[in-house]
Design a protein that fits this description.
By secondary structure, this protein is of the alpha/beta class. The protein has helices at residues 29-41, 54-63, 78-87, 123-140; strands spanning 4-5, 11-12, 21-25, 45-50, 67-71, 94-99, 114-117. The protein has a 5-stranded parallel sheet with strand order 4-3-5-6-7, sandwiched between helices. A two-stranded antiparallel ribbon has the order 1-2. Strand 5, helix 3 (78-87) and strand 6 (94-99) form a beta-alpha-beta unit. The model is unreliable at 1-10 and 139-145 (pLDDT under 50).
């Protein structure tokens, strides 16, 4: 796994530092288990996986992952709301949205978000999406990256 720059500017990755610390948030336990297993075989450090809920924000604040992968659905706002809350943390992780739904089903709701389809979810895709999310986060925070 390559280096991932988290939204707070810290680095994680195989380039002489540590594996990316990833948190998975998805309401489906089987999906979380499969994603966790795949990412771990690719060298990622999956530090937590849980369903969408109030404890997810507290866990992210306490664990300070580099990347949080959040499942979203065209029919519900829970994942999008959670992503907004994660981005507002004092030490925000890079937030990568994922779904098994076709991205076209979301309309403009994905605009400006890093997205990886569940069918393409792997460490490399998360790395690339996290880099895009971090660059946007640094620009919003005025860091000029």
């Amino acid at each position: 796994m390559r280096t991932i720059m988290s939204a707070d500017g810290t680095q994680a990755g195989a380039n002489g530092t540590r594996p990316a610390r990833i948190m998975i948030i998805d309401d489906h336990e089987i999906t979380r288990a499969a994603c966790r297993a795949l990412l771990r075989t690719e060298g990622a450090d999956v530090i937590a996986d849980m369903a969408v809920g109030d404890h997810a924000i507290a866990a992210a604040a306490a664990l300070r992952p580099d990347v949080v992968v959040v499942d979203v659905s065209p029919a519900a706002d829970a994942g999008f709301g959670l992503a907004r809350q994660l981005r507002a943390l004092p030490h925000p992780p890079a937030v990568v949205l994922t779904s098994s739904a076709d991205p076209a089903e979301f309309g403009t709701r994905l605009d400006g978000s890093s997205f990886v389809a569940k069918a393409g979810l792997c460490a490399g895709a998360i790395d690339a999406a996290a880099r895009r999310a971090s660059l946007r986060g640094c620009c919003r925070a005025g860091h000029g990256r």
